[in-house]
Specification:
6-stranded antiparallel β-sheet; 2 helices; 6 strands; about 40% strand
Amino acid sequence: MKFDIPEKKKLVYGMVIPIRWGDMDAMGHVNNTVYFRYLETARIDWLRSIGCMPDPRGEGPVIVNAFCTFKKQLEYPGDVLLKMYVSDPGRSSFESWSTLARTDDPDTVYAEGGATTVWVDFPKQKSAPLPAWLKATME
């Protein structure tokens, strides 16, 4: 799968995540599942930073598809520089895209990933229109 961030992407969030000793696997590099945790951490922090606090009695975001392409091994010690972008806000969904680099090697992409997020009415268990305030943060 070739990773192409759409032209109409918007950089919405950036963060630094420390690589922990326990993030590594027996091969001495960050385990593939941990990359998804890094992506999740950035997504959740971004949503919280814009005031999006999901309410199980109301509405909120649900990930319906997630992917990660591994380019180069991340290893301990170090810090991950994650940049998150959003694109393609639709009626009830949007795309997020992220690049992961090291703070000591910021020009090298070690991994890239993303997710399709659908806005959901939790009690009805159905998609719902993206709130106008959320859509505005993506345009």
